[in-house]
Amino acid sequence: MNRRHQHTPWQEPESRAAIPDPPVPAPANNHRRQLINAAWKLAALAACSTGALAVVSAYGGLGGGSDSAPPAPPPAGAPRAVVLTSALSSPWGFAFLPDGRIVVTQRRGTMVIVSADGTTKSAPLSGVPAVDSAGEGGLLDVAIDPDFEIDPWVYWTYAESGSGGSGTAVARGRLSGTALVDVQVIFRQLPKVSGEGHFGSRLVFRSDKTLYVTLDERAEERPAQDLTTHLGKVIRIERDGSVPTGNPDLGGTARPELWSLGHRNPQGAALHPTTGELWLVEHGPQGGDELNRVTPGGNYGWPVKSYGCSYGAPVGTACRIGGGTHAPTYIEPVSYWVPTSIAPAGLVFYTGAGFPEWQGNAFLGALAGQALWRVVLSGATEVSREQLFASLGERIRCVRQGPDGWLYLLTDSGKLIRIER
Q: Cα-flanking dihedrals φ and ψ of residue 170, to 5°?
């Protein structure tokens, strides 16, 4: 009989002292003790059969090894989404303050501070300049100065109206209570153009405390290849907006703040935790959304090349812009999405302890795709990717890792969500 399926009720085995040994020769006495020991072990195993089955269920089977080896730890809980607040209004970006509170931008032009547990939300911070919130414009990304605890600068991007139309601008102000003071506009995208589409943008501080800004092409397409404009570019500037040393020399009349070109509408950016390189995600047209590793002076092909198609084209490969393939003239994306767009937004590389199985993976939100995507990488090569939390049915606008090691998501519906286990 298989002892794992016996159901003998538990009985405390008698002590060996309670079982008298008859006066037999020593060898026979030893043999009897061995028989008794074997009987006790069988009884104990039968009595514990129900518990043994529970261990198999929890740990995936009974393993060999010494009796002193500890059992394998139980499997970790599945990742779960916890809504911290649903009281935000069209949020776009967020950043963690050193005390754990969260600064959140709201697209129509206000910035608020949410408590670490999401239970309270401040009144709108004063000092935010007027924004153009038409179409895809508004108050966009936000970042905290690397030396915030010494000098509390907060940086943000927004759509700014001006001569010729509108464009993305970068401002900063010192946080004082619920006010932003000493506000300065440190960068303005040129030229300003008419229209309400494609404003980008994300802010990422490098380890040298210079600032990357990802900039859209304002739906103008061709200027993404024009080095005299900021449209469809990534720039690198100092914290006061000046141009740092070390930017690529793109020659001729190229603007000195340019870092890369040929981008369409980059709405997620992050530094790689090992290399320190900038990575970004950007929207394609009809399909062709991209995950890119950004190199200084790199040209990413838009609008000459894309794995996406012009809007309204039949779904397939024949309609890919410029044939799709970027190389050798332009840089190939690390990953791309076809035949339809997920509209990626927000990007982070996971380095926390809460999900050790996700270490080094890239995570990006999806607006049209309404999900969180996990991309497994080997260097700059995609190994696999998977769609997570699609059941939430949320347009995920921004993704960050919190100081507690969990992932945080911001949704267009006004939710701040923590991914934990």
A: -120, 130
**pLDDT band per the 50, 70, 90 thresholds, residue 127:** very high
Q: Supply the pLDDT for residue 63.
A: 31
Please answer whether residues 6 and 49 qualify as being in contact, where contact means their C-beta atoms are separated by less than 8 angstroms. yes
Cα gap 138→256, rounded to integer Å:
27
Query: Comparing C-alpha atoms, which of 166, 162, 146 is closest to residue 154?
Result: 146
- Using alpha carbons, select from 231, 226, 229 the residue that is nearest to residue 214: 231
- 3-state SS, residue 390: helix
Of the chain, the percentage scoring pLDDT greater than 70 comes to: 82
pLDDT in tens, 111-125: 999 999 999 999 999
Alpha helices in 184-260, H assignment, sequence order: none
Flag whether the pTM goes above 0.90: no
Assign 10 a pLDDT band (cuts: 50, 70, 90): very low
Q: Rounded CA gap, 363 and 233, in Å?
A: 22
301: left (phi over 0), alpha (psi -120 to 50) or beta: left
3-state secondary structure of 18: helix
198 is catalytic: yes
Across 226-379, the runs of DSSP E, i.e. the strands, are 233-237, 258-261, 266-271, 278-282, 289-294, 335-337, 344-349, 362-366, 371-378
Catalytic residue among 5, 7, 198, 263: 198
Q: Is 369 left (phi over 0), alpha (psi -120 to 50) or beta?
A: alpha
Contact 156, 142 (CB under 8 A): yes
User: What is the reported pLDDT for 405?
Assistant: 96
